[in-house]
Design a protein that fits this description.
Elements: E1 4-16, E2 20-27, E3 31-37, E4 56-62, E5 69-77, H1 88-103, H2 111-127, H3 132-147, E6 164-167, E7 170-173, E8 179-182, E9 186-188, E10 199-202, H4 204-213, H5 226-244
Parallel strand pairs: 3-5
Antiparallel strand pairs: 1-2, 1-4, 2-3, 4-5, 6-7, 8-9, 8-10
Length: 261
């Protein structure tokens, strides 16, 4: 038998039969896979800690022709992210990140990009030196970019008007008035109409912050103000849900953007 091995992050696991576990993991070179870890429920078995969610390691598995499940031999944690289990808020955000990866389609060609996205997000949560809501916002925006649906913030989606002018501090907003964000079309300038439940009003302060935050040459734009973070989080999270066409279960336990204000 040719056992395969790959860098991985454990996404979720659950008991399977008497002694086994059903483990879903993101393999860096293969994408999302689910397999059976034999005897992993036994206290002295290979599953103690190694198959806990958020654990990063090297997984050894066998693919079977005609089966959607792989056979998992072992996982060597390097290192595990068990520290995320000790802080409830960290655990909630990490669970949300992994659920997004579970819900979206990932091809083998795209697997390295999603692997880097997830491991970087977990690293930032584990470090604990940033506001978790800001880490979430960056993760969601990068997640949408990986899916190819990140809106073009710099141009009106309806009339094509340029919304920013390049400056030394990022991109300067040309019109200091409220803009709109249409979940189906993208950013709309103040002159273009936008109506319906899928349209959000975006303050000029939010647009100004995005202009600095998304500039690839800016290494530190500073954290957003509470009101800016609340508006931007509501817009980006709504876009994530609209694209997935469902509400992730873990999202219900995350802080509501309105609580920031």
């Amino acid at each position: 038998m040719n056992w395969l091995q790959s860098e991985c992050v454990i996404l979720k696991e659950k008991p399977f039969k008497e002694k086994d576990r059903l483990v879903t993991f993101l393999a860096k070179d293969k994408g999302r896979l689910t397999g059976i870890a034999k005897s992993a429920k036994v206290l002295t078995g290979r599953g103690v800690g190694a198959f806990e969610p958020f654990t990063r390691g090297t997984i050894h598995y066998l693919e079977k022709s005609g089966s959607d499940l792989v056979t998992i031999r072992k996982c060597d944690p390097t290192p595990p992210f068990l520290m995320l289990h000790h802080n409830y808020e960290q655990f909630l955000f990490a669970s949300y990140f992994t659920e997004l990866v579970v819900l979206c389609p990932i091809s083998p060609a795209d697997a390295p990009v999603f692997y880097d996205l997830l491991t970087h997000g977990l690293d930032r949560l584990a470090a604990g030196d940033e506001d978790f809501r800001v880490v979430r916002l960056r993760f969601e925006m990068d997640f949408l970019t990986c899916l190819g649906v990140q809106p073009r913030w710099g141009r009106c989606a309806q009339c094509g008007k340029t919304l920013y002018q390049k400056s030394g501090g990022g991109y300067r907003l040309l019109q200091g008035a409220p803009h709109k964000f249409d979940l189906k079309r993208g950013v709309l300038c103040p002159a273009c109409p936008g109506h319906g439940s899928g349209v959000f009003v975006v303050s000029p302060q939010v647009m100004e912050f995005v202009g600095v935050w998304l500039d690839p040459h800016q290494t530190d734009s500073g954290p957003p103000m509470a009101g800016v973070l609340a508006q931007l989080e509501a817009v980006v999270s709504a876009q994530v849900m609209a694209h997935l066409e469902r509400v992730p279960r873990s999202m219900a336990l995350l802080p509501d953007p309105a609580d920031i204000l």
